[in-house]
Amino acid sequence: MDIVTEPSVYLVGRTQIDQAAVRQFLDDENADWVTDGERGTELLSELAGRVCYMSFGEKQGRRSNEEYLQNIISMEHGSVLEHVVWNFVVTGVSRSFSHELIRHRAGWAYSQLSQRYVDEADARFVEPPVIASDPELHALWLDSVRQSHEAYRKLSEGLAQRIEREHPEWKRRDKRKKAREAARSVLPNATETKIFVSANARALRHFIEYRGAADAEPEIRRVAFAILQIMQREAPSLFGDYRVLELNGASSTHTEHRKV
User: Fold this and answer.
1) Which of 50, 95, 202, 211 is catalytic?
2) Are residues 232 and 104 in the same domain?
3) Domain check: are 179 and 211 in the same one?
């Protein structure tokens, strides 16, 4: 049985800036914008903020992209962070994790592995480190997961045979779906899932702040740390204010600019 103890997070996409369209907008408004930003996502956040006050050219003031966005964050003008979106694939996480993750709604979008269509006969399972570190508890967990997985296999096979006898006219795809959707009822929350996630900068900051806290559920906290590491490389002007601190023996994300 394949056991997973650490999640994997892949950054697979991001919002891009259309330089030609921005130039046309500036020309039409007889405006000029000077910035040292190089990342499209950070440039778009700055552009969104400047449009609010048409602070271009002589009215521009701050010229550094980092300085501008740090001021936006410190002033808690988080709305301009909602315009830029990143796309992730998250694997090595449990169904328990995904139940927690999808509680984040505003600014998020999800596409998750379907247990109705995907055969879980070769599924992987996510073991909490607190169980894995104890031999006796690990053995108990492993036995429980194995029993559930074996029951899934037998149910899936038995249901497939029954459906074939009773509904031979159904399409092959529908037969498999009907068998798997019923058999999955015995699979544990520890079953690994894969999920495609899209979120804007403001939603990601909220996630990192709350799910990276010391009292957050351990699995989702590990994902929050992984996303923070990615975003501090990807958009340091938007996420550079976060630090990971040790509080009461546990790691926790921290920023002076909360709820932005």
Assistant:
1) 211
2) yes
3) no
Evaluate whether 8 touches 92 at the Cβ level (below 8 Å): yes
Query: DSSP state, 128?
Result: P
> In the numeric block, which tokens belong to residue 181?
């959707």
Which pLDDT band holds residue 260 (cuts at 50, 70, 90)?
Answer: confident
258 tagged catalytic: no
Q: How many domains does the chain have?
A: 2
Element containing residue 191 per DSSP (H, E): none
pLDDT digits 0-9 by tens, 79-90? 999 999 999 999
Q: What is the distance between the terminal CA atoms of the chain, rounded to a whole angstrom? A: 43
Query: What six digits make up the tokens of 119?
Result: 């055969």
Q: Phi-psi category of 199—alpha, beta or left, where left has phi over 0 and alpha has psi -120 to 50?
A: beta
Lowest mean pLDDT among 4-8, 63-67, 147-151, 189-193: 63-67
Verify that 41 and 123 share a domain, yes or no: no
Token couple for 78: 């988080």
Q: Last residue of some domain: 146, 172, 190?
A: 190
The answer to whether 115 touches 181, Cβ cutoff 8 Å, is: yes
Nearest alpha carbon to residue 176 among 192, 191, 163, 189:
163
User: pTM here?
Assistant: 0.94
Residue with the two structure tokens 């979106």: 85
Contact criterion met (CB below 8 Å) for 198 and 87:
yes
Based on the fold, state whether residues 203 and 107 are members of the same structural domain.
Answer: yes
The answer to whether the CB of 213 falls within 8 A of the CB of 252 is yes
